[in-house]
Amino acid sequence: MIQKEDDSAKGVAMKNKHKSKRRHPVIRSLKKQAPRRNSPKRKKIPSAAPSGSIEEWLRTLTKPYVIHENLPPHAPEQTGQEYPSRQKEPELPVPPESQAALPFIAHKNLRVLLVTPFFRTNHTVGGQSIPEALRLLVKELIVIKAYEGFTDALTRLQPDLLLLLGGTEVMISTDLETIRDSGIPAAVWMDDENGVTDSQRWMAQTFDYVFTQHHAHLCIYQETLGCLNVHYLPFPADPEVFPPRKSGEYERCDILIIGDAERSREEYIRVIRDFSTDLKLLAIGKGWEPFSVKTVPCSAEDGLQKVYNRANMIIQWDPVQRRVFEAAACGVFQLAEASADLFRYMNASIDVVPFQNAAELGTRLTYYTDQVDQRRLIASQALWNTHYEYSPLHMVIELLRIIISTSS
């Protein structure tokens, strides 16, 4: 039974084999009509064996290519055909030596000892923005607090520059003597926007460089105290502390006034009250109780930042430049009384609008209240400049530039 099945399977396989050799009648007819092509003969590969010596054969293999000046590299050589001459590639300039190409930056080699206020005040000088800017500019930065006897670190570390921020702490006489006798250049960036205190007067005579918050204080340090290197340099606004923030409608005010309600400013107050009968007013300063204007207490930077961002417009007289910078960092439109401090770093009618008297203040109020786009444009320009014109980095660069240029 098994043998019979094998024989039948073998027969089927032979039948399929003969069937697979049969061609379709159309294919058979086309094949008969097509002429038979003679397959080309294969070219023989020439023998690589040298006919002469080994040296001659190697020379034939290493024969250099001939470059035709009148032919592009991709074109075949043809007789009787002219080609334009090939242009030579321009020579690359030779780079100068690395040391000669880079300018010498003196502050990059400085080791700076920065002394910050020991106690945190309501308005911390510079915050973290000044130390962070210094770290980017100098070789080494060491930060310590202004505790009693901090000059021990000055003697031990021997920095290239001592920089004291604030100058509000009362320094003991031994620390001042150590600074004076150390021979190390010493600078103090005074926090004297509210006036020069007795301790600051005493301290300023010890330091080689004094930086003040008001132009009016220059004569105090120079003429009264005999300081040689005195410069006006306001503290910058820290963009991390004073960013633009959106406030709720119930929190917002139409006009925020920054300044004291003194007798000399009664004309300003009268113009504002006549103009803003239906507007919401807030004030930062002293003496506003008789005028029925709500004052805002600002106990810390965070509270001041919130007050700035609540205002649609800010009016400042006797402006402290740092306050103007902070309001600009919050992206708020400002009207400020014209002063020598104001135009040292800010541009009139570009990032702040100045006024000189009550009549100009009334004109500016009337015009800019309706010009919303103009207010937004000026506030945006001031916000931009707090990052790229009078930022903490720019102010620290200016401080180092003054110290290096006057010491050389």
TrEMBL record:
Record region (Disordered): 1-53, 69-95
Bias (Basic residues): 15-45
Keyword vocabulary terms for this entry: Transferase
Start and end residues of each Spore protein YkvP/CgeB glycosyl transferase-like domain: 269-400
Pfam families: Glyco_trans_1_2 (PF13524)
The keyword DNA-binding is annotated on this UniProt entry: no
UniProt GO MF annotations: transferase activity
Protein's name in the database: Glycosyltransferase
Organism: Paenibacillus dendrobii
